[in-house]
Write a structure and sequence with these properties.
By secondary structure, the protein is mostly helical. It has one domain. It is built from six helices and four strands, in the order H-H-E-E-H-H-H-E-E-H.
C-alpha cells in the first residue's frame, strides 16, 4: 500500500516514456527477486516434520562441522538438534538467510505493486481530459470550447 501511495504521489505527472521505463525496470526487479526467493527457498530450507519450514544458515557451527562425515550428514544433525537451526548453523548465518528470504519476498511484492501503480497511471493518462458541464454529465474539453 505504501508503495502505491508513493508511486502515485511522485510519478503521476511523469511522461509516458519514463513510466514505460519504470514498468520495465520493476518487472525485471520483480523477476530477479522471485528467482532469488525460489533459489533461497530451494537451497536453504527444509520442511519441518510438524509443518512449516526450517531456514538453514550458510556457516556450520564448529562442533557440528567436526561431527559431519559420510555416515552423519547435515540433515542428520538438524534432526538430532530437534530441527533447531541455531544448534546446527551459526546464529548469524541463519539470521542472514532469514533476512534474505524476507527481503526477496518484500522486494518482489513491492515491485509488483509499483508495476500496478505505473500501469494504472499510464491508463489514466491515455484518456481524454473531461470537464463537468455542471449537470453531472462530463463533457469533453473540445466540445466545451466550441460553445
Amino acid at each position: 500500500m505504501l508503495v502505491l501511495l508513493v508511486a502515485f504521489e511522485l510519478w503521476n505527472a511523469s511522461p509516458q516514456r519514463r513510466q514505460r521505463r519504470r514498468f520495465i525496470v520493476f518487472a525485471i526487479v520483480a523477476a530477479l527477486a522471485f528467482g532469488g526467493y525460489l533459489w533461497i527457498t530451494s537451497n536453504y530450507t527444509t520442511p519441518h516434520p510438524a509443518g512449516g519450514v526450517v531456514v538453514h544458515g550458510f556457516a556450520l557451527d564448529g562442533e557440528v562441522r567436526t561431527l559431519l562425515g559420510p555416515d552423519y550428514t547435515v540433515n542428520d544433525a538438524l534432526e538430532g538438534a530437534g530441527y533447531d537451526p541455531m544448534r546446527v548453523w551459526t546464529r548469524t548465518s541463519v539470521t542472514v538467510m532469514r533476512f534474505a528470504l524476507l527481503f526477496s519476498w518484500l522486494t518482489m511484492f513491492a515491485s509488483v505493486a509499483a508495476m500496478i501503480a505505473v500501469f494504472v497511471m499510464k491508463q489514466g493518462s491515455r484518456q481524454a481530459p473531461r470537464r463537468s458541464s455542471g449537470l453531472g454529465q462530463p463533457t469533453p474539453v473540445a466540445a466545451a470550447g466550441a460553445s
